[in-house]
Structure prediction request, 661 residues.
Amino acid sequence: MLKMARIGKVYRTGLIETAALEELSLEVARGDFVSLMGPSGSGKTTFLNIAGLLDTFDTGRYLLDGVDVARLRDDDQSRLRNERIGFIFQSFNLIPDLDVFDNIEVPLRYRRMPAALRRERVEEVLVQLGLTARMRHLPAQLSGGQQQRVAIARALVGRPQLLLADEPTGNLDTIASRQVLDLLERINLEQKTTIIMVTHDPALAARARRKLHVLDGRLIDPRASAGERAQG
Amino acid sequence: MSLAGLLYDLRLVAKSLRRDRWFTTVMVVSQALGVSIFATALVTARRYSDMTGQVAPGVFRVEPGRDTLMRRLFQGTQFDGFGDFAGVFIDLPTARALAAAGAPDAQTLSFVSVQAGGPTGAPADRLPIRYCNADLFDLFTIDLRYGRPWRRAEEADRTPVVVLSDLLNDKLFDGRNSVGRTLRIGARDFRIVGVVRQRAGKVPVWDVGIAPQNLTYAMLPFPFTDELRPVPVVSWPPLGADRGWAEIAAASNAFAEYWVRLPTAEARRRFEGAMKALDPRLKVRSADDIVARFAHAPAPYRVFVILTLIVMEASVINVMRLLLAKANSRAAEIGIHRALGAGRRVIFTRQLLEGVLVSMAGSVLGLVLAVPTVRMFDRLIPDSPVALAFTPALVASALLICLLAGLITSIYPAWRVASVSPTRYLGKV
Prediction:
């Protein structure tokens, strides 16, 4: 599904260069559920930005479903992002002017899907996430948990193959967090959607099938000991 | 872009503009102020170039070819233009002598006097009256709203007929068809046979020398000057009505326009010979030349238009900066759309659409605001041959210029917003 080889990314501010990712290599198979942990500034966000085609990289190669993304123009990247990737943000990032239905519909609009099909798809995810009664509510009229469910519905409505979740439970209470995680697990199992989830919570990370750590822009094998890491 | 896509973009843009009402209001008002100033300048300049009236070939006006007393009197003052208009008239004795010389196949003397009169039975009021000959209707293609002009035979028989201007017909008869009704001027009733169409903001070539307040006129056959004893409004030193028409007609300080049609080169040569014999300084000027002179606004007006265009552009640039600021304040939302699949082109189009909508609203509001400003200008500038007015062509051209300026200036903020990396807007995914 996702194959990154020796990806490097450097941020430049004037004369100062900061290496956000250094020779990061990773393969994620279709249907996998991967959690990504690491301290702040370790490169998790940069990794997700590049994985989601929202940012470019300086070195290395990135194949998404066999497509070399570096060769794509902006329009093609946008189309690929729209058709294959779904995003779940920590702060939900719903569009405040649009109601629940319209928020969920946005990715399908960019896919130029006919209105009837759009409606059918949106209603399907509304039922799936128990949001039918709230479909004409504005985001501000919903609780945090409900807003995150809308964000998940929006991420799922396009039936993406890859779901990128950035601390999806970061702004939720314990019960809502558990519900969201249950939902993600169900999506992963039932729809075989590949999920990469960034989290600070070890308990949540433990529920993923595969756990990865990022430190100073490099992937660390959590099973390796501190001594091995120092050597290697 | 599909129609559905455009409608969706319009919906999102409308929501965005509605949400940031303060920003939107400031942008629209900012542009409107610039547009209103520009539109006012355009209307002011265009009044000199909106002359109407088709002219038959070979039509000339006889002009004095020298500085008149009035021109010298007003030279260098704010009424310079008035002196200029007076300089196109010749004195009545010269005009009558030329009229008697023959050669033209059609000719008309023409001047305006102000007398008392009104619909028969109604109280008399101030009534500007244009005395002219039936040939005026042959020399120019005069559009009649109602009825017909008077004929040469009626003029020769001294049939009491009158043709009204649109403005007078509006004033006296509320714009209804007044043909067949009568107008009392002096001690005589004149039957209305026609109403001349006038268009707001446009001056027909035969009306160039008339002050705006006198455009509300009645046209009477010239022979009635003997009976009604009018005093031309252009006379210097001023004449009094008490002197009687015979004396006025012989006075060298009463002026009139004199138009002739000289259909052939031979006729023109003969006429010019008679003219030179009378006064070597006299000259003829073709009506086409006069129209061409008014095709371009005078230099000060053109400079005024350019300056206000710069002011308008400055206001549009201000809108551009506000559009950028507004986009920055909604950066996260743009980032979300990018993350959900909107390409740069989609964001660019949407931002451009927002700029164009603001520009449209600003331009329309600006034109509305220009209406009272134009009226104020009309009162401030006294030498106008015609009242300032918005014509559909003027509104369309002002709107087009302002929209183009808005569109061009919206391109930069749209491009800036669309070219920024979505991660900068989102902060983090």
Remarks:
- The first strand of chain A starts at residue 2 and ends at 13.
- Residues 174-191 of chain A form the longest helix (18 residues).
- Helices of chain A lie at 44-51, 74-84, 100-110, 115-128, 144-156, 174-191, 202-206, 226-231.
- Chain A is about 35% helix and 25% strand.
